[in-house]
Amino acid sequence: MKPRQRAFVTGIGVVCAGANNVAELRSLLARPRRNFRSPTVFPCQGETANLPVAEVSGIESDEASDIPRTHRLALMAAREAIGSGPAPDAIVLGTSTGGILTTETALKAGITSPDAYRRHGLDTVAAHLAQALHVRGPVLTLSTACSSAAVAMSVAVALLRAGLASRVLAGGADSLSRLTFHGFRTLQLLAPEGCAPLDANRAGMTVGEGAGFLLLESTPTQRPVLALMSGTGLSCDAYHASSPHPEGAGAAQAMRRALDDAGVEPPAVDYVNLHGTGTVDNDAAEAKALHQVFGAALPPLSSTKGLTGHPLAAAGAIEAVISVIALTDGLLPANTGLGTEDARLGLAPVREPTRAQVSTVLSNSFGFGGNNACIVLQSPGVQATAVDENAAEAVHGSLPALRVAGVACFTAKGGLDDTWNALVSGQSAAGFVPDAVFSKAVQAAFVRRLKRLPRLVLALAQTAYAASSEQLPPEFLAVGTAWGPLTETQDFLRKLFESAEQFSSPTDFIGSVHNAPAGQVALFLGATAPNLTCSAGDRSFAQALLCASLGVAAGKKSALVMAAEAHEARLSPLFDERAATGPLASDGGAAFLLVPDDALPGARVRWRGEFGGSDLEFLEKFPALKLSGHYDAILVSVPAALGPKANEQVSKLAEAISPCPLVAIRDRLGQHASVGATAVALAARAVLEGRLPFAAPPIPLPRKRLLMLELGPQTAAIEVFA
Amino acid sequence: MTEPTDPLISELARKLVETLGLDMAPESVDPAAPLIGAGLGIDSIDTLELVVMIDRDYGVKIDNRAAGVEAFASLSGLAAFIRQRRPATPA
Question: How far apart are the C-alpha atoms of A408 and A110, rounded to whole Å?
């Protein structure tokens, strides 16, 4: 098999415990010394204060800045990766914490002004970078717990291969927070003396923080090429919400997929940077997976988390930077913290920093939800077979339409039929989804521990499947959610604060990660396919569709794409005040089982772009969309957060597209960040029926073609046609 | 039930059902049956949830595998485990 197009790594940037830039990390790797200590970014009381973390030092204190810590760490590393070069044309970021540390402090202090929470959302990290670095193209946020950054890099490579960008800033960032520290503590996964990956007496992980970025380019520019990102591989265990598959099945699958994607045989790997968290289960499962992939001939390998701690969503990016240093410096990094090697693992990790010729590196990242992501980095001069220029994903800047094989949506009025009928009869579908609508869909025992969002998402997945004739699990799974599982987040923090930060619920912690619902869907469907969660505010659904379309463009035969929000009485009004209060406050979402476009009848959906810039700058891009005379109507989804300014934007838009009708969908469907998915579900039905009933008066659709625009700081466009 | 009920066992049964959201009446938990595994469908996360509850409500820590095996052998075993280790409560 020919390798597919590689991405050129022309910049790297990093911040982690013990190193605030690449030069410091280089020295640290050459002379490892770790500095784990009690957390200082949030107060700790009693015996919990004795648990060490891997904290970044020497940066501006949190009190001195109104920008959350994750955002600041991200910008430090991003600036270093870009250097003096021009702005990238896209950002793909993995994060799991967003502004949670700032949010925790505000909640604890009882602050009720939404202004204090305006940078809570995961999307605000990438938005902060886009603003500071003048990035106008797609700005994507992935959140798959500890594999987030590696998943983000995989999406970045796909964007480059599809010709949707030529210069992508890809990486991850996470800060320490009470949620993750106490969460892993309640799971009894924190090592009292600091982590010792692969050690016979390993007693858990050490939570870390930081950020890492790679500047990835499709063609080498004037900047020196540091490395090639040759391939990536994603998989899902579909085994358990938080524990890895005991035989490492998903991990092995992701490693094999990454090596295949890169066109690299296992014996060609010179070094493996392990996920190696230091928990009993992770290291055991990863060891089994390595033996499956490499057989008896294991390459040199190590976990560098004994040095950096586990920086969660940033881990994959920081370790990608470490992998690039391994290639450029000819260095095998040490497995810091190792005392007595666990003989049962049979791994023989690198004990001391070792000089060696390193041309091909495999880097592993695994996360909650059984979410696995591996990447292959190589020296620029590596000899390999010719790259397959005619690979399926060479779509040259636009993505294929996908046929809707099954669709579901939930609104205050019920499922798709009930919602459709309510709208036809002139009613509003705004409001919260009644429990009865989604609680009957899945077995009670299966959902016992699940709260509102995962239940909604599971029921949507099941309903979309039931509406299709598909039997097999999807080959790609992408879930969009702006706010993630808010009930779990609120319950975890409430219990924590009620107990003077001593106790909280491990179930709520596991459930609080943004990709927990997607992990539940994978479990339910037995889907070991790539499993992505996009959290980009109101564009979360559009980005899930983008990722799935990239997957189909690269050969996947089916994709389950969904987006949903679950209202939470305390947090929703703080995080998204204008949407979550008032008569239009809503939740719900939609799911689509999508297949490659074929001759079969049915609606089609197609991701048409994400345009940055202020006001209506994106209109300039519309000639490419053949806006005039092409669509029967434009559906416009206007987030309440845009405020009164949006009215002006919408009237300018209406003027620009006249005489094509413009339908403001949130007036009828309600306000929540994933309502665009619901609009697309209804549009997919409307183009088949030839009329748009939720406009007053109803609009005939002779061309059977609609465009949905999600407005905001970035505008996303999705086409629906039959 | 013919035997006199141990109030701690009843209390633990109630907390077990409540903490884990089990769809059953507390009285129907067999005090002698294994807590973890197929019977009640309790897995490792549920176990940790119980560990937190026992630490919070009784001041008894279960922080290693051996202690967990002993503590969660059965509901009556858990009651005995807590009684043995419970810090003296002010009268």
Answer: 39
Counting residues of chain A whose pLDDT is more than 90, the rounded percentage is 84
Contact A459, A444 (CB under 8 A): no
Looking at per-residue pLDDT, the higher value among A265 and A626 belongs to A265
CA A556 to chain centre: 19
Question: Looking at beta carbons, which residues of chain B come within 8 Å of A184?
Answer: none
Q: Which residues of B touch A443 (CB under 8 A)?
A: none
Question: Does residue A2 have a pLDDT over 70?
Answer: no
Cα–Cα dist A205/A276, whole Å: 9
Q: Which of A188, A446, A449, A509 to mutate to test the interface with B (most CBs of B within 10 A)?
A: A188
How far is residue A308's CA from residue A29's CA, in Å, rounded to a whole number?
A: 10
A308 DSSP assignment: H
A310 catalytic, yes or no? yes
Helix (H) or strand (E) holding A326: helix A315-329
Q: Is B65 on the interface with A (CB under 8 A)?
A: no
**pLDDT tens readout for residues A99-146:** 999 999 999 999 999 999 999 999 999 999 999 999 988 999 999 999
Mean pLDDT of A63-86: 94
Pairing of the two strands A271-273 and A301-302? parallel
Q: CA-CA distances (angstroms) from residue A491 to A301, A685, B57? A: 40, 38, 18
> How many Cβ atoms from other residues are within 10 Å of residue A354's Cβ?
15
Q: Which residues contact A13 (CB under 8 A, 6 or more apart)?
A: A21, A22, A76, A77, A78, A79, A80, A81, A82, A171, A211, A212, A213, A321
pLDDT at A623: 58
Strand partners, A19: A16
Q: What confidence score (pLDDT) does residue A617 get?
A: 65
Task: pLDDT band for B3, please (50, 70, 90 cuts).
Answer: low
> What radius of gyration do chain B's Cα atoms show?
13
**Minimal-distance CA residue of chain A relative to B54:** A503
Backbone φ, ψ for residue A381 (5° rounding): -90, 5
What was the pLDDT predicted at A249?
97
Q: How sure is the predictor about B16, in pLDDT bands with cuts at 50, 70 and 90?
A: very high
Beta-carbon-side half-sphere exposure of residue A260 (alpha carbons within 13 Å): 9
Mean residue pLDDT of chain B comes to 89
Q: What is the DSSP string of A53-116?
A: BB---SS--GGG-SS-HHHHHHHHHHHHHHTTSPPPSEEEEE-S-TTHHHHHHHHHTT---GGG
Residues 6 or more apart whose Cβ sits within 8 Å of residue B18: none
**A193-243: pLDDT as tens digits:** 999 999 999 999 999 999 999 999 999 877 899 999 999 999 999 999 889
A275 is annotated as an active-site residue: yes
pLDDT of residue A625: 59
DSSP character at residue A311: -
Residue ranges of alpha helices (H) inside A502-660 are 506-512, 516-525, 540-553, 571-575, 577-580, 622-625, 645-657
Instruction: Choose the catalytic residue: A120, A128, A275, A567.
Output: A275
Chain-centre distance for alpha carbon A510: 16
